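User: What would this chain look like folded?
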Amino acid sequence: MLIIGDKQKTYTAIKQDLIDKFSYKKSGKPEPEDFIEFNISDTKTLLRDIISLDFKDIHAIYNFIKEEIQSVVIELEVSRTNGSYPTSLLTHREISPETRAINAQKILREEEFSELTLEKINGYFSQLAAITRVTREIYFFIIDEGEYNSDTFCIYQDEAIRKLNINPKKLREELTILERKNLIYSVDEEDPKIILKIIEPDIAFMLSYIKENLDLHKIIVNLDFTKLDIYAPKNQL
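Assistant: Here's the prediction, encoded as structure tokens.
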């Protein structure tokens, strides 16, 4: 139980039979004093416990509270006179850029990409633009940290969890989105590798080239496809 304010030493409403019925924690002290000590917290105690946590745990608490408060506000707030509401999930909707690579000459000028076309490159980028930034960060991580072979990138799921320091459930959610968007293969529980699903081998090779020679993060996560373009000097236009 959380008291918004300061916790009292005694509460007349606490009944011994209810304490026993719901199996609350006991410390060996006479009831109901230990019930109050171990099962009732106030904001001061809560803040004290939070501040002693590791940063990753504090960050997780922050995100949880932020999401929960947003949901409560949306459910309880009163509409304006014109019928609209001041808070909406739609205000947080991520807008994907519609721009694509103009010429991708930093790739297409290279002899090893003679079979690759601008249409194929931009078709692949359209797949990336269909997922949110957070999911693209997972996708980027697979390329950045994964092993490149057989025209794809792969990394073991447990290795990804450790390196990202991510909750396994959260990673599973992001992988499900990538599976649904046909960007990775389904993870086999017997051989839990995360493997990118790239139909065009040239695209996988392009990603390997970008990883070694260009700014992979800005292209994959920020969707800045202009990083692949070469612009002629103004005096040549």
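The longest helix spans residues 55-76. If you want, I can go into more detail on any region.
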